[in-house]
Specification:
The complex is a heterodimer of chains A (about 170) and B (about 140). Chain A has about 170 residues and is mainly α. Chain A is built from nine helices and no strands. Chain B contains five helices and no strands. The chains are: A mainly alpha (about 170), B mainly alpha (about 140). Chains A and B meet through helix 1, helix 2, helix 6, helix 7 and helix 9 of A and helix 1, helix 2, helix 3 and helix 4 of B.
């Protein structure tokens, strides 16, 4: 595979990688660094990767694993804490401005999900991958992916309804 | 899309039983401004998700800058290793240097003693002057 083909295929998947990294690491800078790092690794092993059939899936799996490693390391945990605090203040502000259609609130719901469910939800609802691809990326069986997805969506549904009713009850 | 169908699919959706095509149809339904009242609670989720989809990796991948970044890191590491090697290396003194250091230490000793005796002499002079003032020897 020459450099041009590699770059073309990477351009197609890099935004998805970034979104997944951001979902996991929360901070934009961290996510950008993670994607840059994973892409550099892919670049170095270009010839080996050329033999793989699903480069996009492989890139996503690498992103997932890299981000999970980052989360495990102490440094990332500290960064995450700082960022969560920062997020909370904007969520409060958003709530005051617009309680019902608050995107930030939904973000908070997604944020609270367990990591695996979070990732499956991201890959299905944002990236719109089919179950086979998600199973490949997540290194899980399709059944496990379906279970994680339905659990994640159920939690989100409950919270959406709760938030909506709360808005009505307080009359705002 | 019929409302009845939307209701059916939204239930399937939250069970995780919908196909990608059905999910796309739901996305389309929620992207329009008029939504049936009982479906309003779900709107924020679909809005969030479609907004999320527009996020881009702004910095983009550039293998050239990436290589340069590697290179500069390597350079920095090499420089710091060289620095450590140069300045923290245990120095083995030559015999001349040892003699010189010993001589220097001795000279310091001499000079401190000399200074102290000089102070003593100065004190003696003042003592002489004052005694001369009070004790007149004529």
């Amino acid at each position: 595979m020459d450099e041009r083909t590699f770059l073309n295929r990477i351009i197609a998947v890099q935004h998805s990688m970034f979104r997944l990294a951001k979902r996991l690491l929360t901070s934009t800078e961290e996510a950008e660094d993670a994607v840059q790092e994973v892409l550099a690794k892919l670049w170095q092993h270009m010839n080996k990767i050329a033999t793989y059939t699903n480069i996009e899936g492989y890139a996503m799996t690498m992103t997932k694993n890299y981000c999970l490693d980052r989360l495990k390391s102490k440094q990332a945990k500290q960064l995450r804490l700082v960022h969560v605090q920062h997020d909370r203040s904007t969520t409060l502000l958003d709530k005051q401005i617009d309680n019902r259609d608050s995107v930030a609130q939904v973000f908070a719901f997604m944020e609270a999900l367990p990591e695996q469910q979070k990732m499956v939800l991201q890959l299905r609802d944002v990236e719109q991958y089919d179950f086979e691809t998600i199973a490949q990326i997540m290194e899980l069986s399709e059944g496990a992916v379906r279970v994680a997805l339905s659990r994640a969506r159920k939690t989100i549904r409950e919270q959406l309804i709760k938030a909506h009713n709360y808005g009505i009850e307080t009359g705002s | 899309m019929e409302l009845k169908q939307v209701h059916k699919w939204i239930d399937l959706y939250f069970e995780g039983q919908t196909t990608l095509a059905q999910e796309q149809a739901l996305n389309d339904y929620f992207s329009q401004p008029k939504i049936e009242k009982s479906l309003v609670p779900y709107k924020p989720y679909f809005v969030t998700v479609s907004q999320e989809r527009t996020q881009r990796f702004e910095s983009g991948f550039n293998p050239a800058t990436n290589k340069r970044r590697w290179f500069s890191t390597a350079l920095a590491v090499a420089a710091s290793v060289a620095f450590v090697a140069l300045f923290l290396r245990p120095v083995q003194p030559t015999p001349e240097e040892i003699v010189f250091e010993e001589f220097k230490a001795n000279m310091y000793l001499v000079s401190t003693h000399l200074n102290r005796s000089k102070q003593g002499v100065a004190y003696m002079e003042t003592f002489n002057q004052t005694t001369k003032k009070f004790i007149k020897t004529e």
